[in-house]
Amino acid sequence: MVYISNLGYPRIGENREWKKTLESFWQKKISEQQFEKEMKSLRLSSIKKQHEKGIDLVPVNDFTYYDHVLDFATMVGWVPNRFGEINEKPSLETYFALARGSKNIVACEMTKWFNTNYHYIVPEYNKDQQSKLIYNKPLEAYKEAKAELGIKTKPVILGIYTFVQLAKGYKKEEKQGIISKLLNVYIQMLKELESEGVEWVQIDEPFFVLEEVREDINFIKGIYKEISSAVPSLSIMLQTYFEAVEQYKELISFSVSGIGLDFVHGKEGNLQSIIEHGFPTDKVLGVGILNGRNIWRNDLNESINLIKSLQNQIKPNDLWIQPSCSLLHVPVTKIEEELVDATLFEALAFADEKLEELVLLKNVLNDPNSSYENEVNYAKKCLINLKQLNEENKTVQNELKAINEGDFKRPVPFHLRYPLQNKLLKLPILPTTTIGSFPQTKEIKQARQQWRKGVLNDTEYENLIKLKMKEWIDIQESIDIDVMVHGEYERTDMVEYFGEKLKGFAFTKKAWVQSYGSRCVKPPIIYRTVEFTKPITVNETSYAQSLTSKPVKGMLTGPVTILNWSFIREDLSKEEIANEIALALRKEIRALEEAGISIIQVDEPAIREGLPLKKEEWNQYLNWVTRAFRLATSSVQNETQIHTHMCYSNFSDIVDAIIALDADVISIEHARSHQEFSNYLSESPYPFGIGLGVYDIHSPRVPSVEEMEENILSSLKVCDPKRFWINPDCGLKTRNETEVIDALSNMVKSAKKVREIYYSII
Ligand code: GLN
Ligand code: ZN
To answer: Nearest ligand to the C-alpha of residue 668?
Structure first.
């Protein structure tokens, strides 16, 4: 029989009720009681909705007040010592302090969940950490659904291996010992579920798709053996996602009742493993058949064929059809979208629509005489229509075909270009600059809203933006910044802004997804050929440049970041879409150059996060990524200086690719604990201009002149002073104006002090 399982449902609610409730609570606008009440109703309504749609195995415990990894850590007592001893379920105050920090306690670190844009709170292992079951969240969730709705659900629990792998604070060789020590607590939690009569649990072990699992596989097999013999009546679905599993042959011999595999990302690898090693008939196969990371309808015909071939091949008793991963990564429902393009609307499937597709698939598969042909064919037709939208557009395709290798290369190498640029720019040594954005004040945000509503006309809105630009050019002049920026006041977001001005993008009303905590993002949809129609940033940049004799940087978002932070078409490869965007940006860059802009920054903060999970695929990714960047930036004059910017990732493992971008200058986040990158640079000096961020822009604290001076001096130990730049870690749009003025003034003072030392040396 075929059953439908869901792996996780979006937490945020159809109208981001979750975000609003959280933020009202943080702002003390609602009481704790009210908060709990609203969260409960949201939690239950999602379960009810899934149940009513016909989902057989509805997940619980996927819901959280902030992050599911943090939930697990607090549940087993892994709370850093600085939060005091925790012996009972942490209060909301402590729970949120762990995630967001409090007045005097630093928050836990936050980082990206595998290769997604969801961020989890990194569990911290204290030396000699004791683990104990402080509360049992999956049990509470299960009981609540049963009592309130009469529905028997499937608790979703983070796997013990993945949890420990995600944590920090221990040495690699301690890992297995730590897992063994945590095992008792883990088993106790499962036993309580077993006694409650829970039938199935879903244990998420996405770490099983990473190569690191190779060295641990036998050990984990033993762990799972202990788990299953401790809870004989509890059925475990061992769930993997985001890629093909490693060590498949070993994995299928684990003592669990089911194994869930991703047949979207990692389809080839997982299919190949099944062909080679079969699949045990006594286990349930969880077939992740719908893409849980994108927003398109499923090609149901293709899915039916795939599932049927799996059924023929392995003859399992039961098979679960499910999304490839939790639906956390897609918006809730498309029903309220009013998209300009009906073809696009018809091709979409968000979380709710995906669950409906699963219901249809189940009906077709369980009833051979069913007549669902119309529905199944309709899905296909929608996807074909979407694809056809582009067939008439040959211009961009022809332009891309006409590109040759020379278009990816600047005519002369850096060491010949840089002196030419210096001659033109006349900058002091150790030039100061910022990353692009200045604070978006309330007035600017309000003005934008009024303009969108039509209360302000175009000229009125543009004049307000101009006024702000002028104010900040004056401020930069008075602080004495060497390379200025216009401030990005016209942008809400670094991808949306470009999407709105290029052809090929669509914007939704409510297609939000959680990024971290209460922060949600609404990625644009790239659904047609991306095309440049008219200059995007030239007006603002040239206006700012007209106000000062110092250079003003043109400021663009790079092709890979635009791609990675959008939902994209699936009929083209990522590489092809990145090249379309790159071609459009190439035209924008030419327009900026023609307008007399001599430095152009192309931000690529998302290059690192798009890195494939399998190391063997890194080269291929990094190759097309760097080519797309170079396609965008290589057509400029030798004298035009190309900058790029990256932040909040670990860069050491992609330095070769960063070098291959051939950007004249990179500004890179460095102030927050990135000693590692400095260490790297001490071994392999960076061959172009580089600015290692001298202060953390996420904190309202204004660093002193001495502190930044020290940072600069320590960076100069590993960087060539002739090519070193001085800048903050990232854009300043989230700070307030006074903080920025104070911090930048100190930054410039510190630069001037360091220059005194270096003038005589170089
Ligand atoms: N230029 C952008 C800004 O300053 C860069 C933002 C980013 O790196 N995320 O806001
Ligand atoms: Zn940044």
So the answer is: 2
Report the candidate in 177, 165, 171, 158 with the shortest Cα–Cα distance to residue 223: 177
**Which residues, other chains included, contact 136 with Cβ-Cβ below 8 Å and sequence gap of 6+?**
75, 189, 192, 193
Distance between CA atoms of residues 700 and 101, nearest Å: 13
Whether 562 and 495 have beta carbons less than 8 Å apart is answered as yes
Q: Whole-model pTM?
A: 0.94
What are the strands, taking DSSP E only, across 494-536?
503-506, 513-516, 519-521, 525-531
Ligand at shortest distance from the CA of 557: 1
Q: How many structural domains is the chain composed of?
A: 1
Question: How many CA within 13 A on the CB side of residue 266?
Answer: 26
Catalytic residue status for 698: yes
Structural domain for 502, as ranges: 394-401+413-761
| Per-residue pLDDT reduced to its tens digit, 355-405 | 999 999 999 999 878 888 899 999 999 999 999 988 777 899 999 999 999
Which atom belonging to ligand 1 lies closest to the Cα atom of 436?
4
Alpha-carbon distance of 66 to 99, in angstroms, equals: 8
Ligand nearest to the CA of 691: 2
d(CA 485, ligand 2 centre) in Å: 14
Q: How far is the CA of 331 from the centre of ligand 1 (A)?
A: 25
Pairing type for strands 599-603 and 553-557 reads: parallel
pLDDT digits (tens, 9 = 90+) for 690-710: 999 999 888 888 999 999 999
Cβ neighbours, 10 Å, residue 283: 22
Residue 245 reports pLDDT greater than 90: yes
Instruction: Return the best residue to mutate from 603, 646, 668 for the ligand 1 pocket (most ligand atoms within 8 A of CB).
Output: 603
Alpha-carbon span 344 to 527, nearest angstrom: 7
Instruction: Answer yes or no: is the C-beta of 465 below 6 A from any ligand 1 atom.
Output: no
Sign, CA dihedral 553-559-561-563, equals positive
Measured by CA distance, the residue closest to atom 9 of ligand 1 is 605
* pLDDT for residue 672: 65
Mean pLDDT along residues 21-43: 97
Task: List the beta strands (DSSP E) in 122-272.
Answer: 154-158, 200-204, 235-239, 258-262
Ligand 1 proximity of 605 Cβ (cutoff 6 Å): yes
Beta carbon of 131 within 6 Å of any ligand 1 atom: no
Residue 674 in this model has a pLDDT that exceeds 80: no
Exposed / middle / buried, residue 378 (Cβ in 10 Å: 0-12, 13-18, 19+): middle
Q: Looking at the domain assignment, is residue 532 inside a domain?
A: yes
Q: Which tens digit of pLDDT belongs to each residue from 411-470?
A: 999 999 999 999 999 999 999 999 999 999 999 999 999 999 999 999 999 999 999 999
Strands (E), 416-518: 503-506, 513-516
How many angstroms is it from 321 CA to the middle of ligand 1?
41
- Whole-number Å distance between alpha carbons of 383 and 358: 17
- Domain assignment of residue 182, yes or no: no
Q: Is the pLDDT of residue 749 over 70?
A: yes
Q: Do 300 and 332 form a contact (C-beta atoms < 8 A)?
A: no
424 C-alpha to ligand 2 centroid (Å): 27
Buried b (16+ CB within 10 A) or exposed e, 69-91: bbbbbbbbbbbbeebeebeeebe
Using an 8 Å Cβ cutoff, are 250 and 218 in contact? yes
CATH number at residue 420: 3.20.20.210
Angle at 102 between CA 97 and CA 104, to 5 degrees: 130
Q: How far apart are CA 238 and CA 255, in angstroms?
A: 10
**Which residues lie closer than 8 Å to 760 by C-beta, 6 or more apart?**
none
Residue 485 counted as domain residue: yes
Strands 525-531 and 284-290: unpaired
Alpha-carbon distance of 321 to 356, in angstroms, equals 12
β-pair type (519-521, 513-516): antiparallel
Q: What is the mean pLDDT of the chain?
A: 95
Q: Is residue 662 part of a domain?
A: yes
